[in-house]
Amino acid sequence: MSTPSESAPPAPNSAAPEEAALPDPALRRVVMIAVALTLFLASTGQSIVATALPEIVSDLGGLSYITWVVTAYLLASTIGAPIAGKLGDMYGRKIVLQCAIGIFLVGGWIAGAALNMPMLVVGRVIQGFGGGSLIVVSMAVVADLLPPRERAKAQGMLSGVFGVSTVLGPLAGGFLVQTVGWHWIFYVNIPFGVLAFAVLTRTLKSRDDQVKHKMDYLGAVLLMVLLSSTVLVATLGGSTLAWDSAPMLVLLATVVLALAGFIRAEARAAEPVLPLPLFRIRNFVAANGVNLLIGMAMFGTISFIPMFLQVVKGVAPAESGVYMIAIMAGLIGLSFTAGRVMTYTGRYKFLPNISTLVLMLALLMLSTVGPETPLWQITLNLFFVGVGIGPTMSVGIVAIQTSVPREHLGVGTASANMFRLTGGSVGTSIFGAIFNHGLATEVQPLLPQVGNASEITTSLIASLEPGLHAQVVQAFTHALQPLFVVGAGAAVLAFVASLCLHEKPLDDGPAAPRAAAGRKEAGTQVAPAE
After folding, report:
1. Does the pLDDT at position 132 exceed 90?
2. DSSP string of 140-160?
3. Fold of the domain built from segment(s) 10-216+270-509
Protein backbone atom coordinates (compact mmCIF):
# COMPACT_ATOMS: atom_id res chain seq x y z
CA MET A 1 0.00 0.00 0.00
CA SER A 2 1.26 3.44 -0.90
CA THR A 3 1.87 6.13 1.65
CA PRO A 4 1.46 9.89 1.25
CA SER A 5 5.18 10.26 0.76
CA GLU A 6 5.18 7.70 -2.03
CA SER A 7 2.45 9.14 -4.17
CA ALA A 8 1.64 12.62 -5.31
CA PRO A 9 -1.91 13.94 -4.89
CA PRO A 10 -3.86 14.03 -8.11
CA ALA A 11 -4.35 17.34 -9.83
CA PRO A 12 -7.67 19.02 -9.05
CA ASN A 13 -8.86 18.60 -12.60
CA SER A 14 -7.32 15.21 -13.28
CA ALA A 15 -10.44 13.34 -12.25
CA ALA A 16 -12.64 15.27 -14.62
CA PRO A 17 -13.03 13.92 -18.11
CA GLU A 18 -11.11 16.09 -20.51
CA GLU A 19 -13.86 15.70 -23.08
CA ALA A 20 -16.54 17.01 -20.72
CA ALA A 21 -16.60 20.16 -22.86
CA LEU A 22 -18.45 18.24 -25.57
CA PRO A 23 -22.13 18.70 -24.62
CA ASP A 24 -23.32 18.54 -28.22
CA PRO A 25 -24.47 14.94 -28.93
CA ALA A 26 -23.79 15.38 -32.66
CA LEU A 27 -20.18 16.39 -32.03
CA ARG A 28 -19.83 13.56 -29.55
CA ARG A 29 -20.93 11.12 -32.24
CA VAL A 30 -18.29 12.52 -34.58
CA VAL A 31 -15.65 11.95 -31.89
CA MET A 32 -16.88 8.38 -31.43
CA ILE A 33 -16.63 7.76 -35.18
CA ALA A 34 -13.09 9.15 -35.16
CA VAL A 35 -12.22 6.91 -32.21
CA ALA A 36 -13.65 3.90 -34.05
CA LEU A 37 -11.58 4.79 -37.13
CA THR A 38 -8.46 5.05 -34.98
CA LEU A 39 -9.14 1.68 -33.38
CA PHE A 40 -9.76 0.17 -36.82
CA LEU A 41 -6.42 1.54 -38.02
CA ALA A 42 -4.47 0.08 -35.11
CA SER A 43 -6.07 -3.36 -35.05
CA THR A 44 -5.84 -3.71 -38.83
CA GLY A 45 -2.11 -3.09 -38.53
CA GLN A 46 -1.85 -6.41 -36.72
CA SER A 47 -4.35 -8.56 -38.55
CA ILE A 48 -3.59 -7.52 -42.14
CA VAL A 49 -0.31 -9.44 -41.98
CA ALA A 50 -1.91 -12.84 -41.28
CA THR A 51 -2.64 -14.02 -44.83
CA ALA A 52 0.52 -12.38 -46.19
CA LEU A 53 2.90 -14.15 -43.79
CA PRO A 54 3.64 -17.17 -46.00
CA GLU A 55 4.51 -14.88 -48.92
CA ILE A 56 6.59 -12.56 -46.74
CA VAL A 57 8.69 -15.29 -45.20
CA SER A 58 9.11 -16.99 -48.57
CA ASP A 59 10.47 -13.70 -49.94
CA LEU A 60 12.58 -12.55 -46.99
CA GLY A 61 13.34 -15.72 -45.02
CA GLY A 62 12.32 -19.23 -43.96
CA LEU A 63 8.98 -20.38 -42.64
CA SER A 64 10.27 -20.67 -39.07
CA TYR A 65 10.67 -16.86 -38.93
CA ILE A 66 6.93 -16.40 -39.20
CA THR A 67 6.30 -15.81 -35.49
CA TRP A 68 8.82 -12.94 -35.31
CA VAL A 69 6.75 -10.83 -37.70
CA VAL A 70 3.72 -11.25 -35.45
CA THR A 71 5.56 -11.19 -32.12
CA ALA A 72 7.47 -7.97 -32.91
CA TYR A 73 4.21 -6.04 -33.33
CA LEU A 74 2.48 -7.68 -30.37
CA LEU A 75 5.44 -7.12 -28.05
CA ALA A 76 5.80 -3.45 -28.97
CA SER A 77 2.03 -2.97 -28.62
CA THR A 78 2.14 -4.60 -25.21
CA ILE A 79 4.93 -2.29 -24.03
CA GLY A 80 3.44 0.83 -25.57
CA ALA A 81 -0.08 0.32 -24.17
CA PRO A 82 0.45 1.05 -20.44
CA ILE A 83 2.89 3.88 -21.14
CA ALA A 84 0.45 5.54 -23.54
CA GLY A 85 -2.41 5.01 -21.08
CA LYS A 86 -0.41 6.74 -18.35
CA LEU A 87 0.59 9.61 -20.66
CA GLY A 88 -3.08 10.03 -21.62
CA ASP A 89 -4.02 10.31 -17.94
CA MET A 90 -1.27 12.87 -17.39
CA TYR A 91 -1.32 15.04 -20.51
CA GLY A 92 -4.64 14.33 -22.22
CA ARG A 93 -5.84 11.80 -24.78
CA LYS A 94 -5.61 14.04 -27.84
CA ILE A 95 -1.86 14.68 -27.95
CA VAL A 96 -1.12 11.01 -27.21
CA LEU A 97 -3.40 9.87 -30.04
CA GLN A 98 -1.79 12.31 -32.48
CA CYS A 99 1.73 11.14 -31.63
CA ALA A 100 0.68 7.48 -31.75
CA ILE A 101 -0.78 7.86 -35.26
CA GLY A 102 2.51 9.40 -36.44
CA ILE A 103 4.56 6.58 -34.91
CA PHE A 104 2.24 3.96 -36.39
CA LEU A 105 2.53 5.38 -39.91
CA VAL A 106 6.31 5.70 -39.76
CA GLY A 107 6.62 2.08 -38.64
CA GLY A 108 4.30 0.94 -41.42
CA TRP A 109 6.37 2.77 -44.02
CA ILE A 110 9.59 1.12 -42.79
CA ALA A 111 7.96 -2.33 -42.82
CA GLY A 112 6.57 -1.78 -46.30
CA ALA A 113 9.98 -0.74 -47.62
CA ALA A 114 11.76 -3.68 -45.96
CA LEU A 115 14.42 -5.43 -48.02
CA ASN A 116 15.19 -8.08 -45.41
CA MET A 117 13.72 -9.64 -42.30
CA PRO A 118 15.56 -7.47 -39.72
CA MET A 119 14.28 -4.28 -41.40
CA LEU A 120 10.75 -5.67 -41.46
CA VAL A 121 10.91 -6.58 -37.77
CA VAL A 122 12.20 -3.07 -36.89
CA GLY A 123 9.30 -1.54 -38.79
CA ARG A 124 6.84 -3.82 -37.02
CA VAL A 125 8.27 -2.85 -33.62
CA ILE A 126 7.80 0.87 -34.36
CA GLN A 127 4.35 0.24 -35.82
CA GLY A 128 3.43 -1.81 -32.76
CA PHE A 129 4.34 0.99 -30.36
CA GLY A 130 1.94 3.26 -32.19
CA GLY A 131 -0.77 0.64 -32.61
CA GLY A 132 -0.86 -0.41 -28.95
CA SER A 133 -1.08 3.24 -27.91
CA LEU A 134 -3.94 3.92 -30.31
CA ILE A 135 -6.04 1.02 -29.04
CA VAL A 136 -5.89 1.83 -25.34
CA VAL A 137 -6.21 5.61 -25.60
CA SER A 138 -9.14 5.25 -28.02
CA MET A 139 -11.01 3.09 -25.51
CA ALA A 140 -10.17 5.49 -22.66
CA VAL A 141 -11.78 8.33 -24.64
CA VAL A 142 -15.05 6.37 -24.56
CA ALA A 143 -14.92 6.22 -20.76
CA ASP A 144 -14.29 9.99 -20.68
CA LEU A 145 -17.32 10.73 -22.83
CA LEU A 146 -20.02 8.33 -21.65
CA PRO A 147 -21.64 7.14 -18.39
CA PRO A 148 -21.24 3.43 -17.52
CA ARG A 149 -24.43 2.07 -19.09
CA GLU A 150 -23.89 3.88 -22.39
CA ARG A 151 -20.21 3.02 -22.14
CA ALA A 152 -21.07 -0.70 -22.10
CA LYS A 153 -22.88 -0.43 -25.43
CA ALA A 154 -20.09 1.72 -26.92
CA GLN A 155 -17.40 -0.71 -25.81
CA GLY A 156 -19.40 -3.51 -27.41
CA MET A 157 -19.42 -1.46 -30.61
CA LEU A 158 -15.68 -0.84 -30.44
CA SER A 159 -15.07 -4.52 -29.80
CA GLY A 160 -17.10 -5.10 -32.95
CA VAL A 161 -14.82 -2.68 -34.81
CA PHE A 162 -11.87 -4.65 -33.50
CA GLY A 163 -13.53 -7.81 -34.78
CA VAL A 164 -14.20 -6.32 -38.22
CA SER A 165 -10.58 -5.25 -38.60
CA THR A 166 -9.33 -8.56 -37.24
CA VAL A 167 -10.89 -10.37 -40.17
CA LEU A 168 -11.06 -7.69 -42.87
CA GLY A 169 -7.33 -7.26 -42.31
CA PRO A 170 -6.44 -10.80 -43.46
CA LEU A 171 -8.96 -10.49 -46.30
CA ALA A 172 -7.42 -7.23 -47.51
CA GLY A 173 -3.94 -8.62 -46.93
CA GLY A 174 -4.61 -11.65 -49.11
CA PHE A 175 -6.06 -9.46 -51.88
CA LEU A 176 -3.10 -7.07 -51.82
CA VAL A 177 -0.58 -9.93 -51.85
CA GLN A 178 -2.16 -11.41 -54.96
CA THR A 179 -2.52 -8.09 -56.79
CA VAL A 180 0.17 -5.53 -55.93
CA GLY A 181 2.48 -7.40 -53.55
CA TRP A 182 2.91 -7.81 -49.79
CA HIS A 183 4.66 -4.43 -49.33
CA TRP A 184 1.31 -2.69 -49.86
CA ILE A 185 -0.29 -4.29 -46.80
CA PHE A 186 1.70 -1.70 -44.83
CA TYR A 187 1.27 1.25 -47.20
CA VAL A 188 -2.51 0.89 -47.39
CA ASN A 189 -2.93 2.18 -43.81
CA ILE A 190 -1.30 5.54 -44.53
CA PRO A 191 -4.38 7.35 -45.98
CA PHE A 192 -6.57 6.02 -43.15
CA GLY A 193 -4.04 7.26 -40.62
CA VAL A 194 -3.94 10.71 -42.14
CA LEU A 195 -7.76 10.87 -42.13
CA ALA A 196 -7.95 9.76 -38.49
CA PHE A 197 -5.33 12.35 -37.51
CA ALA A 198 -7.27 15.13 -39.25
CA VAL A 199 -10.64 14.21 -37.71
CA LEU A 200 -9.24 13.84 -34.19
CA THR A 201 -7.37 17.12 -34.48
CA ARG A 202 -10.59 18.96 -35.33
CA THR A 203 -12.99 17.25 -32.93
CA LEU A 204 -11.18 16.07 -29.80
CA LYS A 205 -10.61 18.69 -27.12
CA SER A 206 -7.16 19.30 -25.67
CA ARG A 207 -6.61 19.34 -21.92
CA ASP A 208 -6.68 22.85 -20.52
CA ASP A 209 -4.90 22.31 -17.19
CA GLN A 210 -1.19 23.07 -16.99
CA VAL A 211 -0.40 20.77 -14.06
CA LYS A 212 3.16 19.49 -13.97
CA HIS A 213 3.62 15.75 -13.88
CA LYS A 214 6.52 13.46 -13.13
CA MET A 215 6.79 10.58 -15.56
CA ASP A 216 7.83 7.24 -14.10
CA TYR A 217 10.73 6.64 -16.49
CA LEU A 218 12.36 3.94 -14.36
CA GLY A 219 9.10 2.00 -14.11
CA ALA A 220 8.51 2.34 -17.85
CA VAL A 221 11.99 1.03 -18.70
CA LEU A 222 11.71 -1.87 -16.26
CA LEU A 223 8.27 -2.74 -17.67
CA MET A 224 9.76 -2.81 -21.18
CA VAL A 225 12.57 -5.10 -20.00
CA LEU A 226 10.13 -7.37 -18.14
CA LEU A 227 7.73 -7.80 -21.05
CA SER A 228 10.49 -8.13 -23.65
CA SER A 229 12.43 -10.76 -21.71
CA THR A 230 9.23 -12.70 -20.97
CA VAL A 231 8.35 -12.89 -24.66
CA LEU A 232 11.93 -13.82 -25.61
CA VAL A 233 11.87 -16.66 -23.08
CA ALA A 234 8.64 -17.96 -24.58
CA THR A 235 9.94 -17.52 -28.14
CA LEU A 236 13.42 -19.00 -27.78
CA GLY A 237 13.06 -21.48 -24.93
CA GLY A 238 13.31 -25.10 -25.98
CA SER A 239 13.68 -24.26 -29.68
CA THR A 240 16.45 -21.80 -30.48
CA LEU A 241 17.94 -21.98 -26.98
CA ALA A 242 18.03 -24.96 -24.63
CA TRP A 243 16.35 -24.31 -21.30
CA ASP A 244 19.60 -24.96 -19.44
CA SER A 245 21.81 -22.93 -21.80
CA ALA A 246 23.65 -19.86 -20.47
CA PRO A 247 21.73 -17.31 -22.64
CA MET A 248 18.38 -18.77 -21.53
CA LEU A 249 19.40 -18.68 -17.88
CA VAL A 250 20.37 -15.03 -18.34
CA LEU A 251 16.95 -14.31 -19.85
CA LEU A 252 15.15 -16.07 -17.00
CA ALA A 253 17.21 -14.14 -14.46
CA THR A 254 16.36 -10.92 -16.31
CA VAL A 255 12.64 -11.69 -15.99
CA VAL A 256 12.95 -12.21 -12.24
CA LEU A 257 15.15 -9.15 -11.64
CA ALA A 258 13.04 -6.90 -13.88
CA LEU A 259 9.87 -7.98 -12.07
CA ALA A 260 11.41 -7.32 -8.64
CA GLY A 261 12.81 -3.98 -9.80
CA PHE A 262 9.51 -2.95 -11.37
CA ILE A 263 7.54 -3.70 -8.19
CA ARG A 264 10.03 -1.71 -6.12
CA ALA A 265 10.04 1.21 -8.57
CA GLU A 266 6.23 1.38 -8.74
CA ALA A 267 5.96 1.33 -4.94
CA ARG A 268 8.22 4.40 -4.75
CA ALA A 269 7.15 6.37 -7.83
CA ALA A 270 5.18 9.60 -7.44
CA GLU A 271 3.07 8.77 -10.53
CA PRO A 272 3.69 5.08 -11.32
CA VAL A 273 3.14 3.88 -14.85
CA LEU A 274 1.12 0.95 -13.43
CA PRO A 275 -0.02 1.65 -9.84
CA LEU A 276 0.40 -1.46 -7.72
CA PRO A 277 -2.73 -0.88 -5.60
CA LEU A 278 -4.79 -1.55 -8.73
CA PHE A 279 -3.86 -5.20 -8.28
CA ARG A 280 -5.89 -5.20 -5.06
CA ILE A 281 -9.04 -4.51 -7.07
CA ARG A 282 -10.77 -7.80 -7.69
CA ASN A 283 -12.25 -6.99 -11.09
CA PHE A 284 -8.95 -5.54 -12.30
CA VAL A 285 -7.17 -8.82 -11.56
CA ALA A 286 -9.95 -11.16 -12.73
CA ALA A 287 -10.72 -9.30 -15.96
CA ASN A 288 -7.05 -9.06 -16.88
CA GLY A 289 -6.59 -12.75 -16.13
CA VAL A 290 -9.28 -13.43 -18.71
CA ASN A 291 -7.65 -10.95 -21.11
CA LEU A 292 -4.25 -12.65 -20.80
CA LEU A 293 -5.60 -16.12 -21.51
CA ILE A 294 -7.99 -15.09 -24.27
CA GLY A 295 -5.13 -13.23 -25.94
CA MET A 296 -3.15 -16.47 -26.07
CA ALA A 297 -5.99 -18.35 -27.75
CA MET A 298 -7.11 -15.54 -30.05
CA PHE A 299 -3.82 -14.40 -31.58
CA GLY A 300 -2.51 -17.94 -31.85
CA THR A 301 -5.58 -19.01 -33.80
CA ILE A 302 -5.66 -15.96 -36.06
CA SER A 303 -1.94 -16.29 -36.84
CA PHE A 304 -1.96 -19.95 -37.86
CA ILE A 305 -5.40 -20.67 -39.35
CA PRO A 306 -4.60 -18.90 -42.68
CA MET A 307 -1.46 -21.02 -42.99
CA PHE A 308 -3.47 -24.20 -42.36
CA LEU A 309 -5.96 -23.19 -45.05
CA GLN A 310 -3.26 -22.31 -47.58
CA VAL A 311 -0.92 -25.28 -47.04
CA VAL A 312 -3.27 -28.10 -45.99
CA LYS A 313 -6.45 -27.17 -47.88
CA GLY A 314 -4.76 -25.48 -50.85
CA VAL A 315 -6.72 -22.26 -50.42
CA ALA A 316 -5.34 -19.12 -52.10
CA PRO A 317 -4.12 -16.29 -49.80
CA ALA A 318 -7.05 -13.99 -50.62
CA GLU A 319 -9.58 -16.82 -50.23
CA SER A 320 -8.11 -17.85 -46.86
CA GLY A 321 -8.94 -14.35 -45.66
CA VAL A 322 -12.56 -14.88 -46.70
CA TYR A 323 -12.85 -17.84 -44.34
CA MET A 324 -11.70 -15.63 -41.48
CA ILE A 325 -14.98 -13.73 -41.88
CA ALA A 326 -16.49 -16.55 -39.84
CA ILE A 327 -14.51 -15.41 -36.78
CA MET A 328 -15.56 -11.82 -37.48
CA ALA A 329 -19.23 -12.75 -37.65
CA GLY A 330 -19.15 -14.53 -34.31
CA LEU A 331 -16.98 -11.93 -32.59
CA ILE A 332 -18.93 -8.90 -33.84
CA GLY A 333 -22.33 -10.45 -33.24
CA LEU A 334 -21.56 -11.42 -29.67
CA SER A 335 -19.68 -8.16 -28.94
CA PHE A 336 -22.73 -6.10 -29.91
CA THR A 337 -25.04 -8.49 -28.09
CA ALA A 338 -22.92 -8.37 -24.94
CA GLY A 339 -22.87 -4.57 -25.04
CA ARG A 340 -26.65 -4.37 -25.33
CA VAL A 341 -27.18 -6.97 -22.61
CA MET A 342 -24.97 -4.94 -20.26
CA THR A 343 -26.76 -1.71 -21.20
CA TYR A 344 -30.28 -3.01 -20.62
CA THR A 345 -29.69 -5.35 -17.68
CA GLY A 346 -26.63 -3.90 -15.97
CA ARG A 347 -25.28 -7.45 -15.66
CA TYR A 348 -22.18 -8.90 -17.28
CA LYS A 349 -20.50 -11.64 -15.25
CA PHE A 350 -22.39 -14.54 -16.85
CA LEU A 351 -21.31 -13.51 -20.36
CA PRO A 352 -17.61 -14.52 -20.16
CA ASN A 353 -18.60 -17.53 -18.02
CA ILE A 354 -20.47 -18.95 -21.00
CA SER A 355 -18.34 -17.66 -23.87
CA THR A 356 -15.04 -19.07 -22.59
CA LEU A 357 -16.56 -22.55 -22.52
CA VAL A 358 -17.78 -22.06 -26.10
CA LEU A 359 -14.25 -21.01 -27.09
CA MET A 360 -12.78 -24.12 -25.47
CA LEU A 361 -15.12 -26.43 -27.39
CA ALA A 362 -14.49 -24.61 -30.69
CA LEU A 363 -10.71 -24.88 -30.33
CA LEU A 364 -10.94 -28.57 -29.45
CA MET A 365 -12.91 -29.09 -32.66
CA LEU A 366 -10.23 -27.22 -34.62
CA SER A 367 -7.60 -29.56 -33.20
CA THR A 368 -9.28 -32.45 -35.06
CA VAL A 369 -9.36 -30.91 -38.55
CA GLY A 370 -7.17 -32.28 -41.32
CA PRO A 371 -6.83 -32.52 -45.12
CA GLU A 372 -10.16 -34.37 -45.41
CA THR A 373 -12.15 -31.96 -43.21
CA PRO A 374 -14.74 -30.07 -45.32
CA LEU A 375 -14.30 -26.32 -45.44
CA TRP A 376 -17.84 -25.72 -44.17
CA GLN A 377 -16.96 -27.51 -40.92
CA ILE A 378 -13.80 -25.44 -40.48
CA THR A 379 -15.85 -22.29 -41.14
CA LEU A 380 -18.40 -23.28 -38.48
CA ASN A 381 -15.61 -23.94 -35.97
CA LEU A 382 -14.10 -20.53 -36.69
CA PHE A 383 -17.50 -18.89 -36.16
CA PHE A 384 -17.73 -20.37 -32.67
CA VAL A 385 -14.18 -19.23 -31.93
CA GLY A 386 -15.44 -15.68 -32.56
CA VAL A 387 -18.52 -16.34 -30.41
CA GLY A 388 -16.24 -17.39 -27.57
CA ILE A 389 -13.97 -14.34 -27.84
CA GLY A 390 -16.52 -11.55 -28.47
CA PRO A 391 -18.13 -11.04 -25.02
CA THR A 392 -14.83 -11.23 -23.13
CA MET A 393 -13.48 -8.10 -24.83
CA SER A 394 -16.30 -5.68 -24.05
CA VAL A 395 -17.02 -7.17 -20.61
CA GLY A 396 -13.37 -6.93 -19.58
CA ILE A 397 -13.09 -3.25 -20.45
CA VAL A 398 -16.35 -2.33 -18.72
CA ALA A 399 -15.54 -4.35 -15.58
CA ILE A 400 -12.20 -2.57 -15.25
CA GLN A 401 -13.46 0.93 -16.07
CA THR A 402 -16.24 0.73 -13.49
CA SER A 403 -13.83 -0.46 -10.80
CA VAL A 404 -10.70 1.69 -11.08
CA PRO A 405 -10.31 5.31 -9.93
CA ARG A 406 -10.98 7.86 -12.64
CA GLU A 407 -7.49 9.35 -12.37
CA HIS A 408 -6.20 5.92 -13.40
CA LEU A 409 -8.80 5.36 -16.12
CA GLY A 410 -6.26 5.41 -18.93
CA VAL A 411 -3.91 3.05 -17.12
CA GLY A 412 -6.78 0.73 -16.24
CA THR A 413 -8.01 0.65 -19.83
CA ALA A 414 -4.44 0.15 -21.03
CA SER A 415 -4.02 -2.80 -18.69
CA ALA A 416 -6.77 -4.71 -20.52
CA ASN A 417 -4.93 -4.30 -23.79
CA MET A 418 -1.53 -4.92 -22.18
CA PHE A 419 -2.57 -8.24 -20.66
CA ARG A 420 -4.40 -9.34 -23.82
CA LEU A 421 -1.39 -8.49 -25.97
CA THR A 422 0.99 -10.04 -23.44
CA GLY A 423 -1.05 -13.20 -23.77
CA GLY A 424 -0.96 -12.80 -27.54
CA SER A 425 2.81 -12.30 -27.56
CA VAL A 426 3.57 -15.18 -25.24
CA GLY A 427 0.87 -17.37 -26.77
CA THR A 428 2.02 -16.76 -30.34
CA SER A 429 5.59 -17.45 -29.27
CA ILE A 430 4.57 -20.68 -27.55
CA PHE A 431 2.44 -21.70 -30.52
CA GLY A 432 5.35 -20.86 -32.82
CA ALA A 433 7.75 -22.96 -30.75
CA ILE A 434 5.33 -25.91 -30.82
CA PHE A 435 4.85 -25.45 -34.57
CA ASN A 436 8.60 -25.22 -35.27
CA HIS A 437 9.13 -28.39 -33.21
CA GLY A 438 6.42 -30.05 -35.28
CA LEU A 439 8.09 -28.93 -38.51
CA ALA A 440 11.39 -30.43 -37.36
CA THR A 441 9.92 -33.73 -36.17
CA GLU A 442 7.00 -34.27 -38.55
CA VAL A 443 7.79 -32.50 -41.83
CA GLN A 444 11.56 -32.19 -42.16
CA PRO A 445 12.21 -35.98 -42.10
CA LEU A 446 10.07 -36.26 -45.25
CA LEU A 447 12.22 -33.68 -47.05
CA PRO A 448 15.84 -34.89 -47.06
CA GLN A 449 16.81 -32.04 -49.37
CA VAL A 450 16.01 -29.58 -46.56
CA GLY A 451 18.85 -29.12 -44.08
CA ASN A 452 16.90 -27.01 -41.58
CA ALA A 453 13.23 -26.46 -40.76
CA SER A 454 13.65 -22.75 -41.53
CA GLU A 455 14.18 -23.69 -45.19
CA ILE A 456 10.66 -25.12 -45.50
CA THR A 457 8.42 -22.73 -47.41
CA THR A 458 4.89 -22.85 -48.77
CA SER A 459 6.20 -22.71 -52.35
CA LEU A 460 8.47 -25.70 -51.66
CA ILE A 461 5.54 -27.75 -50.32
CA ALA A 462 3.37 -26.77 -53.30
CA SER A 463 6.04 -27.93 -55.78
CA LEU A 464 6.26 -31.50 -54.41
CA GLU A 465 5.05 -34.46 -56.47
CA PRO A 466 1.50 -35.59 -55.49
CA GLY A 467 2.42 -38.61 -53.37
CA LEU A 468 5.03 -36.81 -51.29
CA HIS A 469 2.86 -33.68 -51.16
CA ALA A 470 0.05 -35.67 -49.49
CA GLN A 471 2.45 -37.04 -46.87
CA VAL A 472 3.95 -33.61 -46.15
CA VAL A 473 0.50 -32.00 -45.87
CA GLN A 474 -0.58 -34.66 -43.37
CA ALA A 475 2.62 -34.12 -41.37
CA PHE A 476 2.03 -30.36 -41.54
CA THR A 477 -1.43 -30.94 -40.07
CA HIS A 478 0.07 -32.93 -37.19
CA ALA A 479 2.47 -30.04 -36.52
CA LEU A 480 -0.43 -27.58 -36.25
CA GLN A 481 -3.03 -29.58 -34.29
CA PRO A 482 -1.36 -29.29 -30.84
CA LEU A 483 -1.60 -25.51 -31.07
CA PHE A 484 -5.38 -25.59 -30.82
CA VAL A 485 -5.28 -28.01 -27.89
CA VAL A 486 -3.08 -25.54 -26.02
CA GLY A 487 -5.52 -22.76 -26.95
CA ALA A 488 -8.42 -24.80 -25.55
CA GLY A 489 -6.49 -25.19 -22.30
CA ALA A 490 -6.07 -21.40 -22.13
CA ALA A 491 -9.84 -21.01 -22.63
CA VAL A 492 -10.52 -23.34 -19.68
CA LEU A 493 -8.27 -21.24 -17.44
CA ALA A 494 -10.03 -18.10 -18.72
CA PHE A 495 -13.34 -19.63 -17.62
CA VAL A 496 -11.96 -20.15 -14.12
CA ALA A 497 -10.72 -16.53 -14.03
CA SER A 498 -14.13 -15.23 -15.19
CA LEU A 499 -15.80 -16.90 -12.20
CA CYS A 500 -13.85 -14.48 -9.96
CA LEU A 501 -15.45 -11.36 -11.48
CA HIS A 502 -17.58 -9.31 -9.10
CA GLU A 503 -20.63 -7.74 -10.71
CA LYS A 504 -20.64 -4.02 -9.93
CA PRO A 505 -23.73 -1.94 -10.78
CA LEU A 506 -23.19 -0.16 -14.10
CA ASP A 507 -25.08 2.86 -12.82
CA ASP A 508 -22.02 3.67 -10.70
CA GLY A 509 -19.03 5.43 -12.18
CA PRO A 510 -15.38 4.78 -11.40
CA ALA A 511 -14.68 4.31 -7.74
CA ALA A 512 -12.24 7.13 -7.28
CA PRO A 513 -14.60 10.15 -7.50
CA ARG A 514 -16.55 8.80 -4.55
CA ALA A 515 -13.52 7.87 -2.48
CA ALA A 516 -11.07 10.58 -3.42
CA ALA A 517 -12.89 13.36 -1.60
CA GLY A 518 -12.08 11.84 1.75
CA ARG A 519 -8.58 10.69 0.90
CA LYS A 520 -5.75 13.19 0.80
CA GLU A 521 -3.14 10.81 -0.56
CA ALA A 522 -5.31 9.24 -3.28
CA GLY A 523 -2.74 9.53 -6.06
CA THR A 524 -2.24 5.76 -6.10
CA GLN A 525 -4.04 4.73 -2.90
CA VAL A 526 -6.86 2.46 -4.03
CA ALA A 527 -9.23 0.73 -1.67
CA PRO A 528 -9.85 -2.92 -2.46
CA ALA A 529 -12.99 -3.36 -4.51
CA GLU A 530 -15.07 -6.44 -4.00
Report:
1. no
2. HHHHHHS-HHHHHHHHHHHHH
3. Growth Hormone; Chain: A; (1.20.1250)
